[in-house]
## 1
Amino acid sequence: MIDIQDDIYSSEYLSFIKKKEFPCVAAKTALTFQQIKCLVVDHLACPKDDAAILEFVYDFVDTYRQSEKLYHSAAVIFKGPEAPNEAMFEELFWQRLQSLSNLDAQHYGYDRRVVADPSSPDFSFSLKEEAFFVIGLHPGSSRAARQFAYPTMVFNPHAQFEQIRNNDRYNSIRDTIRTRDVAYSGSINPMLQDYGEASEAYQYSGKAYDETWKCPFLSQHGAINHHSAA
């Protein structure tokens, strides 16, 4: 049975992406293809829903791997906290990712196409041996494009970006998103880096960092895998 209230949260998220001014054209494409999956859970600080989140992401991975289309995305929407500031959201965001990773390490290795060390330019978050670029959204974000009404983690398969790059479409999509984001937010995202220049961990939570920041994530998946050039 579908929870009507949960369906409202999911509808709000899809409406957020659908807004004309929303800058991420990749998310808009995923919406058009009906390839955005949503899960609504309780509080970002609480581990009680971690098993359900993991099952949701695992199911998403299975669906994504079987699809011939690009632009798949999975959003986990949290009902609380209601009004986090950036510091609170960042702390709880990494707590949840750490907890999910610890559970995942009991069943799977780390995606060998990426690196588990968040200080590496080749870092990407991994669940079910599938690398993800994870985006954090919340109402207190300093970036307009990240200001969704509820704390949210968006899991975007990393391999999609590689495939888009191989299709020679990455630079065009990247430039379009950046131009639209400047128009939407009034400035360029200070954490934006071109692929491979710096760890993508800097872009996850939406908070602006300086060079002294150390990502708190530590993979428990055994020895850190080396990035494969294949």
Note: The radius of gyration is 17 Å.
## 2
Amino acid sequence: MAFELPALPYPKDALAPTMSAETFDYHHGKHHKAYVDKTNGFVTEKGLEGKSLVEVIKHAKETGDKGLFNNSAQIWNHTFFWNSLTPDYAAPSGKLAELITAEFGSTEELVKKLVAESTNHFASGWGWLVLEGDKLKVTSLHDADTPVVYDYKPLLTIDVWEHAYYIDYRNARPGYLGALTGKILNWKFAEQNLDGEGVSRADQAG
């Protein structure tokens, strides 16, 4: 069965004005869909039908197939990103809140580091909050690179490709990051990923 464009976890106007329905029309409806369509073409061409999305990503990485990797990894990254956002903001709690306090001192300090990492990331890519060992870490990855091929657990991500913010913020990445981290980050999703229950939403994309 071919991969399909995953539905958004909320209506496309649910995050406005932080992220508009028009942005979702392009970002989800065109960019994300293009990655799905191109991946399906590669999968058929290379005889990889029946493999899961994660299996396809890892196969592409191991074989150095950049075209397949870039497109399949972007399916996963984008699905994870949509779930990293929510119209029902709630502050971190439980084990996640404890880890944040231990590593960063406060959620505010963590958000500052995540914004700084994402702002200073050169060109296209992704800002990430991950669990490495038993500690939280803020990092970023270039282009389509993805935690799927690394030895740490992704908790939240922020898309810093220009198509994530060129409509609503006229390419002003800092404004986009400030609004997103202040209003619509899905800490509940991060808590679920910490417990091993949330990441499957991206693993099962398609």
Note: Residues 21-46 form the longest helix (26 residues).
## 3
Amino acid sequence: MPGALVAFRPGCDDARVVTADGGTPDVPEGEQRRAPAAVVFDALGAAYERAFAGSAAHGRSLAWLLGRLAPGSRVLDVGSGTGRPTAETLARAGHQVLGVDVSPVMVELAARQVPAASFRCADIREFPLDEGSFDAVCVYFALLQLDRAGQTAVLRRLTRALRPGGHLVLATVPLDVEAAEGVFLGQPVRVTSFPADALAAVAEGAGLEVLERTEDLFTPAHPRAVPEPHLFLHCRRRDAARPA
């Protein structure tokens, strides 16, 4: 279950995190509990990046997106993790990248490693997103700890944040599971996902056209890892996204 499993509940309770522009993330008053994925990815830190650095399919997906972006495009990276490879690759190509992740440790790492991008420690369900404000959105394995209704709602919200004709790249572990208990790189997790055809239908229902679909089997570079099926959907927002 890779790719910055973002917990979609406010949980950034570490005010020491510094964003790329020198600010600090807002911490909801009275929010003391840690979000489940924040706990997981705070614990993993840079080990997560090392485990998935060898994903050739992820690299090909980024190349697909880069080939469709105009110079200086605005890109939202959901579940940005350590900033590598997604935000770093896009920023190096001259694009304006905003990464959002629930893990304070990941945001701190990303801000340090990819200073050309901006990062926010936030819940993507609640993070302000203006209609049509991004040329592209990346969602690499970032929805796996949401239930299916939540994943559907977030995809609709992210589609609305795209300009008409803008691109969205969505990757997941395509399994027919709901609230499945498991272990990810030594950390206990609870995961929900869709089979490949069902996720493609969710994307279409959100107002996206699936232009390309690829599948891969990848084994993370970690002693506790097992081979994982990976699905990449390369999409474009239709002229008018459907309402939530």
Note: The CA atoms of residues 194 and 231 lie 10 Å apart.
## 4
Amino acid sequence: MTQGVWGKLGGAGIGLAAGGPLGALLGAVAGHFLLDREGSLFGPTPREVVFTTGLVALAAKMAKSDGVVTPSEVAAFADIVQVPENERAGVERLFDLAKRTTSGFEGYARQVAEAFRDEPALLEDVLDGLFHIAKADGAIHESEARYLAAVAEIFGFDEARFAGITARHVRVADDPYEVLGVARSLSETELKARYRALVSENHPDRVIARGLPPAAVAIATRRLAAINAAYDRIAAERRLS
């Protein structure tokens, strides 16, 4: 059977390698599932492990902040965090433990931010994944909105960038220009150039080429769909060829 992010190395060892609150979380569930990596336990922690573990932990804390986990949110979580069926129970244990720990979400968010400080696109992937889960029940509730804004701040996103990310998921102002992060005054040439750059940056094939886990690919696919939909609306309004 194909193994996913979780596979061959002992959970305790990778927990030690990861360090911090995410390492403690992994160490706490060691023995329930293993991690898919060859080589030394003491080398750099694979970034896909940090990415997926961080996303699971932050999703769990978001669920706790909302106070209830709906079936639609569970389904959205499964859409994003895709693992082989034989590894699903381990990920669910990780989620449940993260939700129950007394540690705050801030520690998890800071560790993810530090791990990907030179790759802000990955931090945006994590935030997009959290938005996808939060909106699954048809609305992003006030507690979830506050939580997402706090995570974005820890990740180093300013208000404008967070507004652009939010616009991909919530039609507060129903503004496709905000989704693309551009001004309405942009010329046709500038708009097309921005659109092509966004498609290139966010194409799932690029994510796959970077060796990222299925969770990141699923997030990129949804983000690209939002970008395409926003551009299509603008193109129709402007009657672009």
Note: Residues 7 and 34 are 5 Å apart (CA to CA).
